[in-house]
Amino acid sequence: MRILICEDSVLLREGLVRLLEDAGHEVVAALPDTDGLMDAVVDTDPELCILDVRLPPTFTDEGIRAALAIRAGHPSLPLLVLSQYVEERYASDLIAAQGGALGYLLKDRVADVAEFIESVQRIASGATVLDPEVVAQLLTRRNRDERMLRLTDRERTVLALIAEGKSNGAIAALLFLSEASIEKHITAIFQKLGLEPEDGNRRVLAALAHIENTGVADAGNDYQGGVR
User: Fold this and answer.
1) Percentage of the residues of the chain whose pLDDT score is greater than 90
2) Confidence of residue 220 (pLDDT cuts 50, 70, 90)
3) Torsion angle, CA of 158/195/94/125, rounded to 10 degrees?
């Protein structure tokens, strides 16, 4: 896989290069800041971009703004954002952005090499991988979602399976329904939850609403495993 890295810490940047290359991937560029980032995306044609949230010169939101710019210009390009701490607002911005696969992980996760490499591969394959701590932060500030009351029993069942990270095909097999029927249920769920196509990552947003409403204690593990 062709990977572009944008990380200001030379130690972490070089460490990521080594980890990824040892895992058989090709690092096509490793940048210390966002200068020339968009040109590098065009020139190197990466299959995944890894960016730090806080980058020079102000170390506030340069990385997240760069990620959103990449998402706008190259919506199908998978993104993995790394952060030292949970940046709930930035995570919300990325989840709501229209685009392809997304990862948001705390930098501590890089220490578990096998888990990190697996997350990289899942994101590149189309999964959305959110750090459990990020999910927890997203849920703590939200109130009980009254939109859930609009769902039928069948729609709640489908949504619960979405929250477990199951694909449409897997849900159809479990409920003994056709994939077309599952797609209709999911469309109805999105409509009743007020999730429009431009919201992006609607499966993640819908699953978050379900987890918040039901109080599933181990939901973070499902998210870290990837919800598509």
Assistant:
1) 45
2) very low
3) 40
In this structure, of 77-86, 94-103, 111-120, 166-175, the range with the lowest mean pLDDT score is 94-103
What 3-state DSSP class applies to 227?
Answer: strand
Q: Is 22 exposed, middle or buried (0-12, 13-18, 19+ CB in 10 A)?
A: exposed
Architecture of the CATH domain 142-225 = 3-Layer(aba) Sandwich (3.40)
Predicted local confidence at residue 214, as pLDDT:
57
Domain assignments of the chain as residue spans, ordered by start: 2-139, 142-225
SS3 percent helix, strand, coil of the chain, rounded to 5, is: 55, 15, 30
- CA pair distance 206, 184, nearest whole angstrom: 15
Tokens, residue 219: 């939901």
CATH of 2-139 among 3.30.420.340, 3.20.20.10, 3.40.50.2300, 3.20.20.20: 3.40.50.2300
Q: Write down the residue that tokens 């973070």 correspond to.
A: 220
Distance of alpha carbon 29 from alpha carbon 17, whole angstroms = 9
| CB neighbour list of residue 73: distance below 8 Å, 6 or more residues apart | 38, 41
143-181: b (≥16 Cβ within 10 Å) or e: eeeeebeebeeebbebbbbbbbbbebeebbeeeeeeeeb
